[in-house]
Amino acid sequence: MSNFPPQHQNHSPGREHEMDPAPDYAPRYPGSGRLQGKVALVTGGDSGIGRATAVLFAREGAKLAIVYQEEHRDAEDTKALIEAEGGEALLLPGDVRQKSFCMKAVADTVSRFGKLDVLVNNAAYQEEVEDLRDLSEDQLRRTFETNIYGYFFMTQAALDHLKEGASIVMTTSVNSFKGNTTLIDYSATKGAITAFVRSMAQNLVEKKIRVNGVAPGPIWTPFIPDTMPPDKVASFGSQVPMKRAGQPNEVASCFLFLACEDASYITGQVLHPNGGTMVGG
């Protein structure tokens, strides 16, 4: 059963280096070159699932561009972890809600590394609201602009550079499928992302670019102490069949599988690392 120390961070986005215990980002197995020579851009790549994915991609041979908002210490830590795997990392601070930034981030990635093979749309925002009437217009706008506008803008920017064999992987959520009583706006954006995955998969199939999604359940990331009250943090993840929260490195392998040629016959699909919650059936 999950049993984290009660904690809360009074800033958003959350900081991984302030979490107790630290999330487990470390890859579990030796690399086998599954992304050798590839270039990947990961949004929200400074911490949580994004960090674990970036470090795993580096172990598998990829060069990384890391998009993040302003968590510079976490981003520098992630860069060092990528370099420790023998990889290269380009840090790209900015706001995915701005199309101009997304265009520049992709352009800078291609300028640095010469191409783009994998796009991971992962950056997100959430805030709990008990009563829909208390959901402010500012929060609604921020949630949608971060979680779905940002995915559209980054994908639009990437399409000028993605070629046959490229892959797009997007982070949706278990809440896209089952809903959430206090994350209504967030869950709505995750439903939109699931539909975006399925639509773009059809749109790009003739270009032989695959598009898939990953729908995590409760994962121990900076989202949790940032957006939840301390008492909920303490029991976070205990509601799923496995009775515990997942770790970022238990999700990153899904992104690797979908990004590499192991998933060459898979597009328009969603993987469910969620601790046993049954969805969609």
UniProtKB/TrEMBL annotation:
One GO molecular function term? Answer: oxidoreductase activity, acting on CH-OH group of donors
Keyword Oxidoreductase on entry: yes
- Give residue spans, biased composition: Polar residues: 1-12
Superkingdom, taxonomy of origin: Bacteria
Q: Which CDD domains match?
A: SDR_c1 (cd05355)
Q: Where is this region: Disordered?
A: 1-30
PANTHER family xrefs = NADPH-DEPENDENT ALDEHYDE REDUCTASE 1, CHLOROPLASTIC, NADPH-DEPENDENT ALDEHYDE REDUCTASE-LIKE PROTEIN, CHLOROPLASTIC-RELATED
Family label: Belongs to the short-chain dehydrogenases/reductases (SDR) family.
Q: Return the protein name.
A: NAD(P)-dependent oxidoreductase
Q: To which species is this protein native?
A: Aureimonas endophytica
